[in-house]
Design goal:
Blueprint (H helix, E strand, L loop, with lengths): L5 H13 L3 H17 L3 H17 L3 H7 L3 H8 L2 H17 L3 H18 L2 H17 L3 H14 L5 H11 L5
Helix pairs in contact: 1-2, 2-3, 3-4, 3-5, 3-6, 4-6, 5-6, 6-7, 7-8, 8-9
Length: about 180
Amino acid sequence: MNNVKPISLADQAKLEYEKGNFAVAARMFSQAAQAFTAAKDELKAAEMKNNQSVALLQSGNAKEALQVTEGTEEIFRQAGDLKRQAMAVGNRAAALEGLKQWREALAEYDRAASLFEQAGEGDMHSMVRKTAANLNLKLGRMTDSQMDVLDSLRLTEKPTFAQRILKFLLRIGIIR
């Protein structure tokens, strides 16, 4: 591994992920994170750990997915990188959801949404709100789910045709 460049490892891990080889991708993202750490690039190492978390979650390992996110949010916060900080929080939320820790997951989705809003990432904010709406629906929290759906719709920067119709109906008061 010492002779392999971190960027090459990251690229290989992404290819494995795209092929659906999530366990292999997770291992390779871990190796890339170690290589970036050795190269003193903590931001890229944290990014690789978050990629590893996503791959682990896809492979059905929510517990380890949660563990590898530890500390990454703080690295991005210290760097002033709100977008990647929000992504780290969102990955943590997804892992908590995978562990069926619903309330903790919702709290993290809310934090991720707030960070995406601060970062000016409307589509990412919208996506997190949709995910929170689905989780609220699972929990039987209809009003919260509806509010998340409406917030998601409001935040979508490039709405689909159906979303544009819904926005119009909201604007003229047919849907409330």
